[in-house]
Specification:
- The structure is a homodimer.
- With about 325 residues, chain A is of the alpha/beta class.
- Chain A has 9 helices and 15 strands.
- Chain A has 2 domains: about 150 residues, Medium-chain alcohol dehydrogenases, catalytic domain (Quinone Oxidoreductase, Chain A, domain 1); about 150 residues, Rossmann fold.
- In chain A, the strands form 3 sheets. In chain A, strands 3, 4, 5, 6, 7, 14 and 15 form a 7-stranded mixed beta sheet that branches. Chain A has a 6-stranded parallel beta sheet with strand order 10-9-8-11-12-13, sandwiched between helices.
- The radius of gyration of chain A is 20 Å and the shape is globular.
- The first copy, chain A, starts with a strand and ends with a strand.
Chain lengths: ~325, ~325
């Protein structure tokens, strides 16, 4: 097996502002062989996630930064090519942190076997993967939606936002999505069943929120931060819950983070703002997966993937994510 | 009674930046007579509170703004001089929203009778009044302190902060106060029993927090906002609770509110930030009052008042509050 050639993106510098190709080196190395308890995975699809930008920064966070010289961290799905663990067989389809490369060696216990007949493979990186679980636990555990409440979701056409809004609909809420451009807005209303969508690129978000949320906003699931978070804060209903899932508008900023200027709305409305990362709920993943799969099979949870071909496109594909140019869960197809 | 002369501060313009004397007119008018269900109160002490600055602004909040031309809103304590309600007798001591004036006509049901033998009168506007209740409900209901946790309190020598820290000590927490100047810092440690104090005027708050809170901050009770809030956010422990009680550093700012730049610490640490105003807990005031009075009698809850003589000093005394120059609960003595 040692003759297998493995292309890898390694992080070589901490990006300043927008991530760029020169922050990585693209090298080819032997794939290596799994030790006892490990498997060699042929990566098929890689997940592109906003959180990746944070992993590239130095400094304390919920997870260690990617080391300089290390393969860039990424979730992926692939097929077991070599196994040195009894729990996984050659040919099994597995999900896990494969890194941005053709082949990954991973501990069998760090991988999750999935049934590839259940859905197209990229979906296991989206609605049936970490983004879906992120939506599930953030909305239900922190938001605790009540039937009839008004829920606003930013990045509504994105991997997390699309699932969040659909779960809120399943729970009987009125759901307003915020997305960039008329196509995404049409998608979240017509395909995903949101009650309304606001096009932040072409509408005054503040005014549109006032129009769509006459009784205020009970739950806000925030993926973007910045001015949209401030607009929502100014419209909170009493006892509102603001779920901090991400702040993609700020991750590549050259200036310091923009804090929510309207946070005193929390005081006025006895509201709360709570953050989380999906890893906090690792012990409950099976519950979340079961719910997401059930809704998918029942036709209540739809999803869309934006598939870019070729491992070699990684830096530019990641830029596409941060520019909001993807439409649906963004993945790279590495191999068939 | 109509010959009683009543001096009043009426709000005549919405302040821009720091509040100033010219935002009010100081007039004398007949005190008037109470109608059925009302009493006339001779005001003895007035409460000066950070929230007053917000009440002067136009726009929606948890309470209507003071109207232009209206007597400035203020809490006060005084003696019933005339009563037209069977529930209150002449000579009773009452607390309520008297306004910044010598005499107030109020509905008997909007006033609370207190026992003046229990404590010096100004204390009913501080540790045994709204500030004490604010500390009680904010810390216990939102913060839910657990023995051994690390609690940080800003404006620690102020009316709310001093009570908050002492309740946290009663609950078995380690308590770090942040206050301005060595005298206040000495007071919170030596007199109030905090474990440590940080002098934000003479110390690097960030570094001092790192020194005093090696395991991070479990609860932060924030009265000040601004840079101190950001410093604390960067030091949160997992599952921390940030209680937003006020943001006095921002109330008189000419620029737009400074939002907490480090709010993504909520995400990293699965922490929450929740706001409240004491009025949210009106139904539970008796519970709070009983606890505060009990601790006071037991010698576990100490307090200090900063008494300024003379109703006519109101605008400058309010400035003193916003400059942090008061030491203890700031009140104006209006009459014996």
């Amino acid at each position: 097996m040692s003759t297998l050639q493995n292309r890898q993106f390694r992080l070589t510098s901490r990006p300043v502002g927008m991530v760029k190709r020169s922050d990585f080196e693209f090298v080819t190395a032997p794939a290596g062989e799994p030790s006892q308890g490990e498997v060699l995975v042929r990566v098929q699809y890689l997940s592109l996630d906003p959180a990746m930008r944070g992993w590239m920064n130095a400094g304390r966070s919920y997870i260690a930064p990617v080391g300089l010289g290390d393969v860039m961290r990424a979730g992926g799905i692939g097929r077991v090519a070599v196994s040195d663990d009894p729990s996984l067989a050659v040919g099994d389809t597995v999900v896990g942190m494969t890194g941005v490369q053709d082949y990954a060696i991973a501990k069998a216990r760090d991988l999750t076997r999935v049934d590839p007949r259940l859905a197209p493979l990229p979906r296991f990186l989206g609605a049936l993967g970490m983004p879906g679980l992120t939506a599930y636990f953030g909305l239900l555990d922190i938001g605790q939606p009540i039937e009839g409440e008004t829920v606003v979701v930013s990045a509504a056409a994105g991997a997390v936002g699309a699932v969040t809004g659909q779960i809120a609909k399943i729970k009987g809420c009125r759901v307003i999505g915020i997305a960039g451009g008329p196509d995404k807005c049409r998608y979240v209303v017509e395909d995903l069943g949101f009650d309304a969508a606001i096009d932040y690129k072409n509408e005054d978000v503040q005014r549109a929120l006032a129009r769509h949320c006459p009784k205020g906003i009970d739950i806000y699931f925030d993926n973007v931060g910045g001015d949209i978070l401030d607009a929502v804060l100014s419209m909170l209903a009493r006892r509102a819950r603001v779920i901090i899932c991400g702040a993609i508008s700020q991750y590549n900023s050259m200036e310091s983070m923009q804090g929510p200027r309207n946070y005193m709305s929390l005081l006025v409305n006895h509201a709360l703002m709570e953050g989380f990362v999906v890893f906090d709920y690792a012990a409950r993943y099976p519950e979340g997966m079961q719910a997401l799969a059930g809704w998918t099979i029942a036709g209540k949870l739809k999803a869309r993937e934006d598939i870019v071909e070729g491992l070699e496109t990684f830096p530019e594909t990641l830029q596409k994510l941060f520019r909001g140019e993807n439409f649906g869960k963004l993945v790279i197809k590495v191999s068939e």
